[in-house]
């Protein structure tokens, strides 16, 4: 088991994410003992496993209690450890709201109609959508028309979009933006979705004709950051 754990942790650190269908990823999701050892190994380094039954990948991020130590406090607080400036973080949240929120609504509705409650704490070997859920691409030009000027103009918009693609948050094809491996993992849906839907961005998205999913019941704890941190 130790060798398998070492390999899995090393791969997650090196690649930042691995497919859910990978044999070691599947083992981490369905083997209770292996999962416990993995979580203990990661916790010793201040990390936690990032996965949800709707995502096609798994990844690792900082444990919440380590955020102050990594990012500092007050005026020295860093927004992330990926080198993303504030306008890139804003663009990331906009893209997440346009792609993940509508997709999640469809996934939840499909799971409910199938009577799939995902009661198993370790999840299934495959995400709820079983790989069939492919979020439609969002036109780059449309996002720029709505938000580009507020996000630094054409040059900054293009540079930030390229950075998000390089980090695995999005995939760009034929002037369309698609979900990348990390988009549904690095942002905490339960914490951010209510703030978007009930806040100013939700109003902007509604005005632009984008349908967004209903927010889950909030647990009362406000998130300071939108992006979970990788290695």
What does this structure look like?
The chain is mainly alpha-helical and 231 residues long. It folds into 2 domains: 2-71, Arc Repressor Mutant, subunit A; 86-207, no CATH class. The protein has 9 helices and 6 strands; from the N terminus they run H-E-H-H-E-E-H-H-E-H-H-E-E-H-H. The protein has helices at 2-15, 23-30, 32-43, 67-71, 86-113, 140-147, 153-167, 189-197, 200-207, and strands at 17-19, 47-50, 57-62, 138-139, 170-173, 176-179. A hairpin with a 6-residue loop joins strand 2 (47-50) and strand 3 (57-62). Helix 2 (23-30) packs across helix 3 (32-43) and helix 5 crosses helix 7. The chain starts with a helix and ends in a 24-residue tail after the last helix. Residues 117-124 and 211-231 have low confidence and may be disordered.
């Amino acid at each position: 088991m130790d060798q398998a754990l070492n390999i899995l942790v090393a791969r997650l650190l090196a690649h930042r994410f691995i497919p859910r269908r990978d044999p070691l990823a599947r083992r981490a999701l369905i083997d209770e003992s292996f999962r416990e050892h993995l979580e203990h190994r990661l916790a010793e380094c201040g990390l936690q496993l990032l996965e949800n039954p709707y995502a096609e990948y798994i990844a690792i991020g900082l444990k919440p209690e380590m955020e102050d130590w990594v990012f500092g406090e007050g005026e020295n607080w860093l927004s992330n450890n990926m080198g993303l400036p504030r306008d890139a973080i804003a663009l990331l949240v906009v893209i997440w709201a346009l792609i993940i929120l509508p997709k999640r609504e469809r996934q939840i509705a499909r799971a409910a109609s199938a009577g799939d409650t995902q009661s198993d704490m370790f999840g299934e070997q495959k995400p709820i959508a079983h790989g069939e859920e492919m979020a439609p691409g969002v036109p780059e030009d449309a996002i720029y028309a709505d938000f580009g000027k507020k996000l630094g103009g054409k040059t900054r918009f293009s540079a930030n979009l390229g950075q998000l693609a390089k980090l695995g948050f999005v995939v760009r094809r034929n002037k369309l933006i698609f979900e990348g491996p990390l988009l549904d993992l690095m942002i905490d849906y339960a914490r951010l979705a209510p703030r978007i839907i009930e806040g100013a961005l939700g109003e902007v998205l509604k005005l632009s004709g984008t349908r967004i999913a209903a927010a889950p019941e909030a647990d009362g704890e406000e998130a300071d950051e939108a992006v979970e941190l990788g290695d």
